[in-house]
Amino acid sequence: MNLFIRNIRQLITVAANGKRFKRGKEMRDLGVIENGAVLCRDGKIAWVGRTAEFSEQIGDEMTVIDAGEMVALPGFVDAHTHAVFAGSRELEFAMRSEGLTYQQIAERGGGILNTIRSVRGTTKRDLKKAARHHLTEMLRSGTTSLEIKSGYGLSTDAEIMMLEAIRELAEEELPDIVATFLGAHAVPPEFTGDPDGYVKTIVDTMLPYIAERKLAEFCDVFCERGYFDLAQTERVLGAAASRGLKTKIHAEELSALGGAELGARLGATSVDHLEHISEKGISALAAAEVVGVLLPGVSFFLNHAYAPARAMIDAGVPVAIATDFNPGSCMSYSMPLMMTIACTHMHMSPEECITATTLNAAAAIDRSDTLGSIERGKYADIVLAPVPDYRFLAYHFGTNHVRTVVKHGTILEL
Ligand code: NIG
Ligand code: FE
Fold first, then answer.
1. Are the C-beta atoms of residues 22 and 29 closer than 8 Å to each other?
2. What ligand 1 atom has the least distance to the C-alpha of 272?
3. How far is the CA of 273 from the centre of ligand 2 (A)?
4. pTM of this structure
5. How far is CA 205 from CA 151, 154, 156, 199, in A?
């Protein structure tokens, strides 16, 4: 099927011209075309330009959208989520409102371990049912591709149940979904006081099975005091890489341990969080061209420090923004809300935020060859919003501006 979208007030292409990501000043260059048009053919983008320059005949087989009052941009890529989970943690949210911290709640057996108890007590069917609801809402707010992590099972069976749920959702549902194995998310109760014993189970039992069945494309570790140290992180990621998985790290979230430098040395695809990244960490990511995935919603929701986005962009780190959608540290999947927080608290410009949620986010999941910009040959994933200017997406917050979502060239009925 062909789809022609024309008379677009502002067509935000985020054109990368073959580059994997944008960094430094390039992040402000959105490749805006006024009165733009896009032709989508067989799910891909076939032509991009000014409406007046389009010379092909418009036949009956072509669906036409007249987007006069709309801004168009690439579908958002949410490169870091924990969107498959069971239960919810509104009681912990209420406890935090009374002054308890995220760490205090975790030390009392809440936090990640709370969700682990819920996941272990549920079925794959119910996990998928809950996730399906989130995926539909994500699409409605413009997220057309996302990464989903396991990490709320922490036993071989429960981790595999989560990864199978993610795989089946990827096969059945509309957004493009990339799976990440996060067995090293926390030390499960069975291994309290013996994190190395748990790391051994991950390396000797979980990873071989997951790699063999190709249940995950990436492996991630929560590298943090009280979770997994640098040596344990390296052990898990080294084993994952030797089995063909690409790597990510939850790094420098609560303290500066050096996870960013480790990610740079290991050639990770992305290093995520980075609220407490050091200057050395920033230089290491820039030099190794590792994407830094920032999660403004976590800092906002937990009232924690914000990642030094300005210093990172100015140093040449390819910066992406994701939601980290999960029941504990960010119960939101709104990419535009993340942009608002990044503009107000991290001094990122609206232009940098759009690059960070599209092209650079695609690079964070190794998909920027097919996703993240409106350019010939990439998937036709396009979001249309009736706003006067693209800056409204971050500026007019707390409402969903997205009117039309095109996924692989098809207009979605949501
Ligand atoms: O990315 N930092 C570690 N893990 C998650 C939080 C998960 C949870 O609280 O359930 C995160 O923020
Ligand atoms: Fe996370």
1. yes
2. 1
3. 8
4. 0.98
5. 15, 12, 7, 10
Mutate to test the pocket of ligand 1, among 222, 224, 329 (most ligand atoms within 8 A of CB): 329
Look up residue 278 and give its two tokens.
Answer: 């050091």
Quick: pLDDT tens for 321-342: 999 999 999 999 999 999 999 9
* pLDDT tens digit sequence for 90-130: 999 999 999 999 999 999 999 999 999 999 999 999 999 99
Residue 256 corresponds to which tokens in the numbers above?
């500066």
Q: Within 22-155, where are the H helices?
A: 90-97, 102-107, 112-120, 124-140
387-390: long-range pairs with CB below 8 Å, 24+: 387/70, 387/71, 388/9, 389/10, 389/71, 390/10, 390/12, 390/30, 390/32, 390/71, 390/73, 390/350, 390/354
- Sort strands 76-78 and 71-74 into parallel, antiparallel or unpaired: unpaired
Which ligand is nearest to the Cα of residue 329, counting in written order? 1
Residue with tokens 């570790």: 221
Measured CA to CA, the distance from residue 406 to residue 414 in angstroms comes to 11
Return the structure tokens found at 111: 């936090």
